[in-house]
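Practice problem: predict the structure.
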Amino acid sequence: MQATCGDAGRVFPWASVTKLATAVCVLVACEEGIVALDEPAGPPGSTLRHLLAHASGLAFDGPAPLAAPGTRRIYSNTGFEVAAALVAERAEMPFAAYFEHVWGFPLAGSPAHGVEATLAELSLLARELLEPTRISPAMLEEATRVQFPGLGGVLPGFGRYEPNDFGLGLELRDAKRPHWTGSRNSPRTFGHFGRSGAFLWVDPDAGLALACLADLDFGDWAKDAWPRLADAVLSEAG
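Answer:
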C-alpha cells in the first residue's frame, strides 16, 4: 500500500538523499562485477567500501584526506564522487548515464547531492530499499550492516555521535539520540536526509518507508517536524 500527500509530480532537489540512489548504483556495479567493495579506491589504504561508509578519511568537500582510512567517520561528498568516478571508468560511460540506466530518471549534478526529481521517483528508491529488485536481498543486507563499527563522527545538522554508524551509503539510526527519525522507529531504521528539506527512511521492522520532499531548507523546524511525522505515520500504520 502507498499513500501520498501533495503534488507527487513536482520536481524538488533531493540534496544528500541523492547518496541513497548513488549507493544503489554502486552496489549494482558491484553485483555486475564492474567494481568490488574491497578494492582500492580513494586515498592510500582506502577501498570502495570506505568511500561509501564515510570512512575513507576524505574531507566533506575536497580531495585532501583529514584522517587515515578506517579511523574516523568523516561525512564526505567527495567520497561519493570518487566512488562514482570509479564506476564510470570501469563501465566506460559517464556516471550520470549509468545512474539513469539504473533508475530511469536523470542525475542533474554531483553523485553526492545532484538529483532533482519528484516524489514519485523518490518512491521508486523507497521501494527498492524495502524490497530490492535492482540489487539482491543479500547485498541490501550487507548495505544495512554497520561498516567499520565504533567510528565516531559528526552527523551534519545534529552533531557528534559515538559511534556514528553508517552502512554502505545509508545512515543507520541504531541508538542515536537525538535523531531525525521518530521515537517509534526501530533501531534498524536507515536512510538519509538532505539540506533541501528532503528525507527518506526505511524501517525494516515496520515494513514501512517514509519519503518527503520540501521547498524549505533543513533547519530547526525539521528537527521538530520530522520525528513527529514519523511517529504519527508509524502509529497510524499500527
